[in-house]
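Researcher: Go.
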Amino acid sequence: MGTTPEFGRRDLIKRAAAIGLIAVPTMSVLSACASGDSGGGNQVDKGEKSTKNPLAVNEGAALDVVIFDGGFGQQYAKDAEAEYQKAFPKAQVKHSATQEIQTQLQPRFNGGTPPDLIDNSGAKQMDMGTLVAKKQLTDLNALLDAPSYDDPSKKVRDTLRPGVVEMGQFDSDETWVLYYAYTVYGVWYSKTNLAKLDAQYPETWDDMLKVCEAAKKKGIAGWTYAGKYPYYLPFSLYPFIAKIGGVEVLRRIDNLEPNAWKDPAVKAAFDAYYELYKKGYILQGTPGLTHIESQTAWNEGKALFLPNGSWVENESKKTTPADFRMSVGAPSSLDKNDKLPFGTLWASGGEPFIVPKNARNPQGGMELLRLMLGRKSSQNFIKSVSSLTSLNGGTEGLTLPPGLASSQEVLAKAGKNVVNPRLGDWYVALQKEKIGVGALGEMMAGRLTPDEAITKIQRFADETAKDDSVKKYKHK
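Model: Structure:
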């Protein structure tokens, strides 16, 4: 994943409190970080603060950067690091890339020698909630209050897309995470393949079933998904729940409230998705597919619909036909009683960057982020990986690829109806291992009924709520 889009809608900050704000999922929990509020004594001396160096970076200090090598690759980071070295020619930049973020970095956290900047993404990212609870991160408000790279009259925070700053906050005004990408989640499809069935994207669930039935008659599956990583399913399922029952349902789920998962909207959404399995509309073998394998099957026309995030355009580009016309749709309407209109979707910051508290050069880590949020680096990211950054704007003069253009369109149509559940970055193991693998994956494979899945998930949520070792977070 990239974790990953879009538009100058300042009113989203107002709605953030009403809607809630998630990031790209994770599988592993950072269970044994170096404890407490130690560190800082190992840090390099600060440099001289100036107009060109507002964060007082030590110009000769080395910079250690670790990037998740996933859907967005790592070239965008290397390009930004090259710009950093132009600004600080005496600095040596060490660049590392891995898909094993937690495995490789937990020993460094434990030993008090973490990198200066980390792209904490992917299936094996470190648990953000645990990092915050153990006071292992640097407060990024110094970065947010620094002059922006392109316009010194504006603070960095004032150049970001609505809701991005709030996403990086947990239970206070400190900002622990900067989400660099901006992702639209939903049901992805090919306009070309739908046209072959004389169909358009179905705006109602009844129409969704009709399109899937028409596809089945031609030997094509309606849906596929990352069966080995079924926590991809919530990318379309969670906004579907919110559409049916309202954003309050997701807020109660995020807050681990008793019986939150037993809300009728959850049952209705689960029943609808389970119907895809019962009617044979899921691509055979899907429960055994990785995200890459499911995306490839989808690109090959074996299935029409795929729940995913907007990083999919870049991640699957090697197998995407030239005439595919990749697009994303918001969840279909269940019926006329839905609380929110068609177009409601999940969009949020993705690709979470962190500066460890015990980093040797935290000013350098924040300065690289400041540079990355400038127009040049932002446009380079957009052109390179088909995803927007959290910089508000930056697409002027660019020709966007089909999937990214579609992302902009659906987000603009959503208007204020953008949801962003926090469960995945507050409680990683609960979201991925338990809800995703332990329940949703089992339900979509036909091994649990919706009622059984809901009961199991509610038990998982209750266990987390009662676990004193897990720090709890709530919507403000």
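Model: Confidence is low (pLDDT under 50) at residues 1-40.
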